Every structure is written in structure tokens, then in C-alpha cells.
Amino acid sequence: MDDKFTSKLSPAVDLWAGTYLVFIALLSVLGNASVLFSAGRRLSVLKAPELLTVNLAVTDIGMALSMYPLSIASAFNHAWMGGDASCLYYGLMGMIFSITSIMTLAVMGMIRFLVTGSPPRKGIKFQKKTISVVISAIWLYACLWAVFPILGWGSYGPEPFGIACSVDWMGYGESLNNATFISTLSVLCTFLPYLVIVFTYFGIAWKLHRAYRSIKSSDIQYTNVERRITLMAVMISSGFLIAWTPYVAVSFWSMRNSQRQGHMAPSVTLLPCLFAKSSTAYNPFIYFFFQRNTGHKLLPFHRHAFSCSDRADSSREGEKEESKVSKNLGFTCFGAGTYETCPGLAGVLSIIGNLLVIITAVKRSSKMKPPELLCVNLAVTDLGAAVTMYPLSVASAWSHRWIGGDATCIYYGLVGFLFGVASIMNLTILAIVRFTVSLNLQSPKEKITWKSVKIMCMWVWLYSIMWAMFPILGWGRYGPEPFGISCSLAWGQMKDEGFSFVVTIFSLNLAVPAVIIIGCYFGIAIKLYFTYKKTLNTNQIPVIIKLHRRLLIIAVLISVGFLGCWAPYGLVSLWSILKDSSSIPPEVSLLPCMFAKSSTVYNPIIYYMFSQSFRMEVQQLFLWCPSFKFCRTSSNNGNETTIYMVSTGKTPMSAQTIQETSHTVILN
Prior knowledge:
Elements: H1 11-41, H2 50-66, H3 68-77, H4 83-115, H5 128-151, E1 156-158, E2 165-167, H6 176-213, H7 220-256, H8 266-277, H9 283-291, H10 325-328, H11 338-363, H12 372-399, H13 405-437, H14 450-473, E3 478-480, E4 487-489, H15 499-534, H16 543-578, H17 586-597, H18 602-610, H19 612-621, H20 629-632, H21 638-648, H22 658-667
Antiparallel strand pairs: 1-2, 3-4
């Protein structure tokens, strides 16, 4: 590999940088996707200047999607991936999106300057057509500058630290061509927009100061709104300038000292670059913070940051066993019956509980709503894990050694990985659905169709199968657990050759779903909180709000239960990668594995505890219902009837599970 594309940083620093970029990319994509989603929902009432805010979100999410994956992969690879072609692509994308961002901010500053201080009804107004033309001009301007290095004026090249590409700042002193390009670029695309932004907001501040001194009482509220919007715009612009100023300073230092070798340590050039990339992440948080006070509604950024239920660590249930497992890894640390009983008990509870969920769903399949299919799919993954894995694990425990050698170890790891990834992705989609439908608590407009839910479920299984096959195809490996009677991903053996696989699965099958889940349920909680505040002046809280509060508790319990079960196993797995797995006593490695396997048990228990309708279905299934007055009169139960009437306008003929109730209320 060309030396210029080799990382100049230590592997540990590269790993830290890649992890940081994963975090920034997640924040940027989730936050700006929320902004775009909000704008799309209110497209018909969107004001012309708001299109600039939408354009800014497009540039940020575009940068995150088109650049960060390549930079993250290069950081984990300890070298730039793709050579000159990918470096050219990366520099081109970076130039387009960064120039578009700063020019958009400059135009926003000028528009705010022209609007601020104008009378509310007679002031300057901008048409959508005008703003659209301005945005088109910004993109053309950015593309023009990005193409210049390809046409021969200037050039792209790797950053000094080796795992990112940009304008070849070091070439400033090498040729007149590069010197004129960098000088012109700096003036027209950096200093000039900086000055415009600074002077327009100083001018706005001066206008607001004068307005307060000679304000009419009828315009006080309007001026307060202008002040808040201006403050929000100032924070957006300041954040961008602060994020990029260190990078610009380091670039100019490199440009002026290009002839001196080793004039700046690679780690010093890395930090400003990482700081600059964070500029794509913070705007949605500024919208979130100011939206509450901004009656003008620059963009109604819904406080429902994406979230979903996590079930992913299960990815860790598959490893390729070494051929001498049966002989050399006999389990000898516990007395008979210690480990043997636990998987058997967990398997029995899991099979019984999830079978009840599936049977009740089949009994009422004609009345089942599309989103309920996700809950059924979740029960199928838990039941599948219990049926296909636990018998082999129990038999191996009672035999005091792994049964079947390499073949069964690969099978066990593959099946565990498959159901683990399917579970967490299913929970993630389930949380996204809950978040989406919670946006319209009292005025449902959109329905989730059977076709879309079936596509989601199909995607979950295809995605899971793909990841489960990777170790068989050579990326990663399956192997025995340290205690010898279970198989999973061979964490300890992938410290070197399979490290990229480990980092990728932890990022895509644990970190990303976890962030989405936490964000979604946090967003739902905020939505319920503000909806609840609006009802304080009424005589009673709408039943639908109480229902959503109960559904939120169920969803959070499921997600927390999954994370709680798998977090200890994840920590032990990471320790096995970073340190020698032999440093972990078998007892310590056993307990997290046993705890993780219990994740297939608790969902039916949560449904039974919190869903009155599910309890009735289970009681009727076991022919217990005739002995309970509650069951015989359930159709007249006031609370359940009220919930159904809120959703459909009539009382259903038979009980529904909590999942159907929730989506019936919101989607119908």
C-alpha cells in the first residue's frame, strides 16, 4: 500500500477516532433525519426561509452518509481504503458539502438581517421560488469549486494523519497552481462568508437594540420572537465557525510550513479534523432547545429523537469451535446441576411463554393489526432460539463437555447469531414504529400497512442471515466459550485478524440499535410529557394518554431487560478481545452467558403483567376463564371499553392484546 495512505497514528488512536466518528455519524443522521422528517410532514405550510434550514440539514446528513463510513472504515483499518480513487471522491464530497453549508449559513444571516426589524405584516417577504433559486445557486457554486481540482486547478490528497482526504494544503508551496487555488478558495469560500455571517448578526443585534428602545406595545411579542430566532441562528452559525476554525488554522499552518518535515504531529492534525466533522451533529439539538420558545417555528423539530428496543447483543451467540473442544475444554468448574439446570429452566419458560404469545395471535389473526406482526416476529425469534439452541446446550452441560465437535459448534454459533441479530433489529423497528405512531396521539392520519410490516420482517431476517453467514465465509469466526460447553463468536481469537468484524458488529448490531432505542423512547416520553401538560387545564386526562404511558412502560421494560441481560456478556466479550481471555475465570465467563440466555423468557411475562387483554386470552386458552367473574364480564369493563372506543368508535367483540390496542388507538 502507498505510504501516503498509511495511518500516521497509533492503532489505539485510530480506534478512538473511528469510534468517535461512529458516534458523530449516528447523531448527525438521526438528528438531521428528524429535521427532514418534520419538514416533510409540514411541507404545505413551510415558510420560504425555512427551506434554507432544510438545505442545511440535507448538507449535514449528506456529509455523514457519503463520507463518514469511508473514514470510519479507514480508521479501523489503520490505513486509507481505496487508494487515489476513494481519496478523490472523499475530497470532492467534503468540498461540496462544506462549501454548501457555509454559504447556506451566510445566506441565512443576510435574510435574517433583512427581515429583522421589519413590521410583522408589511416587512420584507421572500417567496419559495426565490429561495429555491438561491439554494440552487449555492449547490452550483459548491460543485463548481469541488470540480476545479479534478480539472487541474488545485488538487486533492490525504490529510497528514493518513485516514482522511481533503484539499492538498501541503501543495501550496509546491506550485503556483496550488497556491492560487488555495488562496482564492480561502478568500471566496472561507473569509468572505465568515465576514458576512459576523457582520449580519452584529447588524441584527444593533437593530434589535434600537427596536427595544422605540418599540410599540403591539409589537413586543413579535420582537421577542425575532430575538429568539436570531439567537438560534447565531448559535447555528457560531457552532459551524467554531467547529471549522481549528481545522482552517491547522490547514493554513500546514500550507505555510509545507517545506518543513515533521512541522506538526499527526495527532495534532487529527483533532481539528474530528472537531470539524462534529459540525454535522449539533444543529438538531439547537432546534430542539429553542423550539419550545420559538413561536415562529423555524422548524418544528419533534422532541422524539429516534429510538427503539434493543435486542442485539445476541450477535454474540455464535463462534466457530476448535477441533479439540471435546477433549481439552471440558467443563470442570461447577458441581453437577449448577449450569445444567439453568438453561433447561430458561428454555422451558421461554417455549411456554412465547408459544402463548403466538397462539393468542393466531386465535385472533382476523382482527390483528399490522404492527402486531412485529411482536409475533419477536416471539418467533425467542422461541426459535430456545428450541434450536437450548437442547444442545443442556445436553452438553449434562455430558460435562461440548457434544458434536466443530460442526455443532458452528451450528450453535450461527443459530445464536441469527436469532440474536433478528431480535435486536426487530426491537429496533418496533421502537421506530412506536415512535412514529406516537407523533399523532389524537389525530391519526397515517396507517402502517400489512405490506410494509411484512417487508420490515423480511428485511430483519435477511439482514440477520447475512451477518450470521459472514464468519462462515471467512470474516470473523465461531468458537467455544471459555467455559467449554457453549459456542459463540470467538472473541478471544479475533483480537488481530477479525478485529474489524468485531468493531463492525458492535457498531451496527449493538451501538446503532441502542442509540436508536434510547432516543425513540426518550422522544416518546417527551411527547407524552408535553401532551400531558396540555391536558392539565381539562377535567380529566384523555384515556389515550394513559394508554400510551402504559405502552411506554412496557416497551422500556422490554428494552431495559434485553440490555440488562446482554450487557454483562458484552463486557466480558470485550475483555476477551482486549485482554487474554484466559485471564477470566470460567465462573466469571459462565454467569453472563447464563444471564444473556434468559432474555428469551421475560417478554411474555411483561405482557402478562401489564396487558389485561393478554391475561384474558391466556386464561381463556387454559379454560380458566369460566371460573373468573372478571373474564365473564370483560366486555363491559369500563377502562378497556373506553380505550377501544377512543380508537374505533365502538367496543370490539373480543379482547385484544396490548399490542393491538396500542396501534389501534393511534393508527385507526
